[in-house]
Structure formats: C-alpha cells, structure tokens
Inverse folding.
C-alpha cells in the first residue's frame, strides 16, 4: 500500500486485524489495529482533517508540470511518451490554460520531464508507453527514476537511509509475531502506534498515543454492526 486512501479502503472492508507500517522523510512508523470500535482503527491514522490535494495536483507538483496538462494525461490515459490529444487541452473552472499550452499537443510530457530532472535517455525507454499515474507511482514515489536525477526533489518523496523501508518491514513483522503469541502481549506498549526517528539516535520515546476519529469508521454504528456480524464478536 502506498496511499492513505488505499489504507482507508482496506479498513472499510472490515478485516479482523490490521498491521501497518510506513516510512517518512525522517522516521518509520508502525501500528496495530485489533479491536475495531475500541481502539483507533487504521483509518483513524489517515482520515483527512481538511482538504487534501487531488491526485493530479500531487503529480503536477512532483513532475513540475501544469495541473491541466497532468489532467489531460490522466483523463485520456495518454502514454507519457506521446503528446496530448488536442481535444483534452482545455481550461476548467478555476484553472486556466497557460499561454504556451499549444505545445502539449506536439511535445510528449516525458521528454520535458526528463529534461527538467536530468534523466538520461537510457532511463526512459521503459516509460514511453506508461501512463502518468504509473510514472508518478513507480518512477517518482517508488524511486525508479529519481536515482537518475541531478537535482533535489521534494522531501516527502525520499528517505535518508537506504535500509529505512526494510527496518519498517521488520517492525511490521514484529507486531504480527507479538500479536500471534499470547505470552508476548504483556510486553507491548498500550498505544497502538509508534514512530522512530532514524536520524535522532537513542534513546527515544517511540510510543504515540492516538484517539479514535469520531464520527467515522470505528465510531459508525453501521460499520460496528457489520464488523460484529462478520467476526461474531
């Protein structure tokens, strides 16, 4: 999983237990969710408190492209190695086309993005027929193309230690193991969430108290009723 929306969707399917881990620019985190309706659920960690950027806005910022150009590639599923269909190049309420938008119909986005980030031609062949969503997910968030960049990228797209994701996976596996062995339950902290700053050294207070998000999944009567029926609890 690589997004808050997917994690919320998984919680909405009402699994009996959920174990979660993630990486951020300075830390790793992990959480367990075994008592739906009593403890914070997985969605409580990711439910937005306010407006968040749309996917096209995140992609536009990451690739340093105009949002309307990104929207055109998303809506039409045009490969990033091809120029946009002129019919998709148009303004929308609140967002106007720039004066040079005509070039979008003649110049593939991949070519311009590669020039912006300094990606070599040898790194682009795989992406010619990929969608912009795949370029963003695997090339940017997944790091497949960022390793070829010569400039700094937005902090939320990188982690400082090569083994950071592996360490998060180890903590995730540990949570699952402890949950599977009743004799170990007494040794785990009461808070369901913890974080570790990989650059801060030891000792650290890793336990992170968190409350349930009111009025949403684990406080909703319908979700609680279906969960009880599904798992006979």
């Amino acid at each position: 999983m690589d997004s808050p929306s997917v994690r919320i969707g998984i919680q909405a399917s009402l699994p009996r237990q959920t174990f979660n881990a993630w990486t951020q620019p300075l830390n790793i985190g992990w959480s367990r969710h075994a008592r739906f309706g009593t403890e914070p659920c997985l969605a409580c960690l990711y439910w937005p408190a306010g407006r968040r950027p749309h996917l096209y806005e995140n992609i536009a910022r990451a690739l340093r492209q105009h949002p309307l150009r990104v929207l055109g590639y998303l809506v039409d599923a045009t490969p990033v190695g091809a120029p946009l269909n002129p019919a998709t190049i148009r303004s929308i309420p609140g967002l106007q086309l720039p004066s040079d938008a005509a070039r979008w119909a003649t110049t593939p986005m991949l070519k311009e993005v590669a020039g912006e980030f300094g990606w070599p031609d040898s790194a682009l062949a795989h992406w010619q027929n990929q969608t912009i969503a795949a370029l963003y997910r695997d090339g940017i968030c997944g790091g497949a193309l960022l390793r070829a960049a010569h400039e700094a990228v937005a902090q939320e797209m990188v982690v400082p230690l090569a083994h950071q994701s592996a360490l998060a996976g180890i903590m995730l596996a540990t949570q699952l193991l402890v949950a599977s062995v009743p004799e170990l339950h007494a040794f785990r902290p009461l808070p369901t969430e913890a974080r570790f700053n990989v650059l801060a050294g030891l000792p650290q207070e890793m336990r992170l108290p968190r409350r349930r998000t009111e009025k949403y999944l684990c406080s909703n009567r319908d979700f609680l009723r279906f969960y009880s029926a599904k798992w006979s609890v």
